[in-house]
Structure formats: C-alpha cells, structure tokens
TrEMBL record:
InterPro entries in UniProt: Adenine_glyco, DNA-3mA_glycosylase, DNA_glycosylase
Protein name: DNA-3-methyladenine glycosylase I
Classification via SUPFAM superfamilies: DNA-glycosylase (SSF48150)
Annotated EC: 3.2.2.20
Keyword terms, alphabetized: Glycosidase, Hydrolase
GO molecular function: DNA-3-methyladenine glycosylase activity
Gene3D superfamilies membership: Hypothetical protein, domain 2
Top-rank lineage group of the source organism: Bacteria
Source organism: Paeniglutamicibacter kerguelensis
Length: 198
C-alpha cells in the first residue's frame, strides 16, 4: 500500500507534498494544523484559502508576505475600508493573486468579520463547527475534501455575508486551523496540535 509518506533525511515521516520543498516542509512542521483561535489569525487564513481556490497552496505560501503587506497584515478594521482606488492598486500588484472577485471578497469578508463580533467573533464562530471526531487517514486518498461540518460552516458563513467560503475551501480552513487533524496516521505531526488525541 502506497501511503504517500516520505521519510526525510531527518528520519521524520511527512506526506510527499511536504517532503521536498523547504518552504512547504517548514509550513507543515511548524504551522499547518496547529490551533489558531484569534480573529486576526482566522481572518488571514480564511482570506488566503479563498485566494488559493483553484491554485496550489505553494503558490499562496510563496506570496504570503506580499499578501500581508498588501492587505494591511489582514487587519479586518483596515481592510473593510478599502475602496475602488485600493482595489485598482491591488489589481496592479504582481506580488499577490490579481483576481478582482477574490480581492472584493476579502474586503466583504472583513466587513462580515467585524459584524460577527456582535455574536462572539469569527474565531469562536468557525471553531463552533468542530466535529465530534477527526479522520484517521492512512493514505492521501483517505483524506476527505469536505465534511458535513465544512458544508454547514460554508452555509453559515454565507448567511453572515461571507464570500469564497465553499465547503471544500472551508474544509481546507478547518485543516489549517487544527479544527480537524488530517495528518496521516504515520506522520510525525499526527496528534501534535493538542486538539485531538493521538
């Protein structure tokens, strides 16, 4: 059975996507799947997941610092005030993904994030969709791309005025935030978030 696991020169087991590129390996080892429970952190990752739609995560990760600079470090209070002049400026910024719909969605989502503060905030809202159990994938093929919870989260966010929050994108967000643990069972990262038992 091909699990998709690669043993690195450091003798640690990782999935193939995180095994060779140093940037991806560092992201996998230190960040992906670790709990993020603050508004700023969740808004940034929600924004980047939306920009990633249809693209590779490596593309987004390489541009993350450019995104942070372009979007005021993903401060919702600043981003919600971006007007047409700022949109045009962003469309001319080769350091980010120049997609008008995704840029406008990020601004719209900043406004929706601020509105959600009345009901406990974005982070608590997203985490409230944590499932009862997490997958235990043995191979890459075992990892889901959606779940009933990601569909419910998608629908709930849309009702709250968010865009580019489809169920697949929301499942990727839940993985990134540690709400689910989809690390392969053999991976050295499995169970390291503290959210789920090993």
């Amino acid at each position: 059975m091909d699990t998709g696991i690669v043993i690195g020169e450091d003798q640690l087991a990782r999935p193939a996507w995180a095994a060779t590129d140093p940037m991806m390996r560092e992201y996998y080892d230190l960040e992906w799947g670790m709990p993020v429970r603050d508004e700023h952190g969740v808004f940034e990752r929600l924004s980047l997941e939306a920009f990633q739609s249809g693209l590779s995560w490596a593309t987004i990760l390489r541009k993350r610092e450019n995104f942070r600079e372009a979007f005021a470090n993903f401060d919702p209070d600043t981003v919600q005030g971006f007007g047409e002049d700022k949109v045009e400026e962003l469309l001319g910024n080769a350091g980010i993904i120049r997609n008008r719909a995704k840029i406008l969605a990020t601004i719209k989502n900043a406004r929706a994030t601020i509105e959600l503060r009345k009901d406990g905030g974005l982070a608590d809202f997203v985490w409230s969709f944590k499932p009862v159990q997490t997958p235990t994938p043995l191979t890459m093929a075992d990892i889901p791309t959606t779940s009933p919870e990601s569909l419910a989260l998608s629908n709930a966010l849309k009702k709250r005025g968010f865009s580019f929050v489809g169920p697949t994108t929301m499942y990727a967000l839940m993985e990134a935030l540690g709400i689910v643990d989809t690390h392969l069972v053999q991976s050295h990262r499995r169970g390291t978030s503290g959210v789920w038992p090993v």
